[in-house]
TrEMBL record:
One of its GO terms (cellular component) is membrane. The keyword Nucleotide-binding applies. PROSITE patterns: DAGK (PS50146). Residues 9-156 form the DAGKc domain. Keywords: ATP-binding, Kinase, Nucleotide-binding, Transferase. Gene3D superfamilies: 2.60.200.40, Probable inorganic polyphosphate/atp-NAD kinase, domain 1 (3.40.50.10330). It holds the Pfam family DAGK_cat. This is DAGKc domain-containing protein. GO terms for biological process: phospholipid biosynthetic process; sphingolipid metabolic process. GO terms for molecular function: ATP binding; kinase activity.
């Protein structure tokens, strides 16, 4: 990774966006422990910049500034929520952010040191969770691959949102919304979130269309999950055929699930075998649009999430943007 003579200083900048509150504060502690090793192994070839977030959405601003400055890489240090925010910093006003001077040369790459509660993207790649030596090895090797990015558009929200893992709607999105309130309890937060979401849940008929085709009414939807990668909810293999390098999204819908279905079939969600069951459909798409059925009395309360972050409510459009970024593998 020796810098060549034409490389500017900014093009050697590695900006680490650290959420000190991630994983109930463990991210901040682990980050401090790994700094000496990181400096000694990466510091001779790169300028290491540490940026601690001060609250929600701050990581978006830090990442956007770093990309504008032409940094070599922006590395999210934390969970999927921090990665989600850093990813969103690569985009502005519906487009990829360009470096200020439109400098030729290497584009800013996206990296991840997974230190969150769920760390579901790390599971997709089979990385050891919270293994800081392995994470530093990856950065030192610097192997990159163009990765697809998922996009969610909510008409009421002027800002598009981007995701790497899984976006979803209805029960799973509501469960994620509640789970985020119980992160102090570690992975148990997902179980409590699901129980709380179920209390007020009702399966709903929803209108959907894929790839700009005909609208159809899908009956009694419990949850629809749109995967760029496989995992959500701290290890559920919800979209088991999803691949962030194949230019498509895997859509999995659970229909007419009752509370006891989750108890009896929970293990299939972790194994990824639920897609072979009745009441589950799976589909490979480029775009999916979903809206509520007209004339329903209960409107406006179908939750939408991406990468575990609550985005809002239906209607929503999900699409794939192939090969958007260099991702450090
Ligand atoms: N300094 C901060 N103080 C409080 N919250 C923060 C801060 N910085 C970021 N956040 C918020 O913390 C949330 C969760 O962060 P993160 O994803 O890193 O950890 P996690 O939730 O423990 O892990 P995972 O998402 O993998 O389950 C994000 O939604 C982010 O907006």
């Amino acid at each position: 990774m020796a810098p060549d003579a034409l490389t500017t200083s900014a093009q050697r900048d590695y900006v680490f966006v650290v959420n000190p509150s991630g994983a109930n504060g463990r991210t901040g502690q682990q980050w401090k422990k790994m700094m000496p090793d990181l400096n000694s192994r990466l510091g001779k070839d790169c300028n290491i910049h540490e940026a601690l977030t001060t609250g929600p959405l701050h990581a978006i601003e830090i990442a956007r500034e770093a990309v504008r400055d032409g940094a070599a890489a922006v590395v999210a240090v934390g969970g999927d929520g921090t990665l989600h925010e850093v990813l969103n910093g690569f985009f502005d006003d519906g487009k990829l952010v360009q470096s200020r001077e439109g400098r030729p040369g290497p584009r800013t790459a996206l990296g991840l040191i997974p230190m969150g509660t769920g760390s579901d993207l790390a599971r997709h790649f089979g990385w050891n969770l919270n293994d800081r030596h392995q994470a530093i090895d990856r950065l030192v090797k610097g192997h990159k691959r163009r990765i697809d990015v998922g996009r969610v558009q909510l008409p009421d929200d002027k800002v598009d949102r981007y995701f790497l893992n899984v976006a979803s709607l209805h029960l799973s999105a509501k469960a994620g919304y509640f789970a985020s309130m119980y992160k102090k309890l570690g992975n148990l937060c997902y179980v409590i979130g699901a129980l709380q979401a179920f209390r007020s849940h009702e399966n709903r008929d929803l209108r959907m269309r894929t790839d700009g085709g005909e609208w159809t009414v899908v009956p009694k939807v419990t949850a629809t999950c749109v995967g760029n990668a496989k995992y959500f909810g701290g290890g559920m293999n919800i979209t088991p055929s999803a691949d962030p390098f194949n230019g498509g999204l895997e859509v999995v819908s659970l229909m007419d699930y009752k509370w006891y279905d989750f108890i009896l079939k929970m293990h299939t969600l972790y194994q990824g075998t639920h897609v072979h069951l009745d009441k589950v459909t799976t589909n490979s798409v480029q775009t999916l649009e979903v809206e509520e059925v007209e004339n329903e009395s209960r409107k406006g309360n179908v939750f939408v999430q991406a990468d575990g972050e609550h985005l809002g409510f239906l209607p929503a459009k999900f699409s794939i943007l192939p090969e958007q970024l260099d991702f450090i593998l």
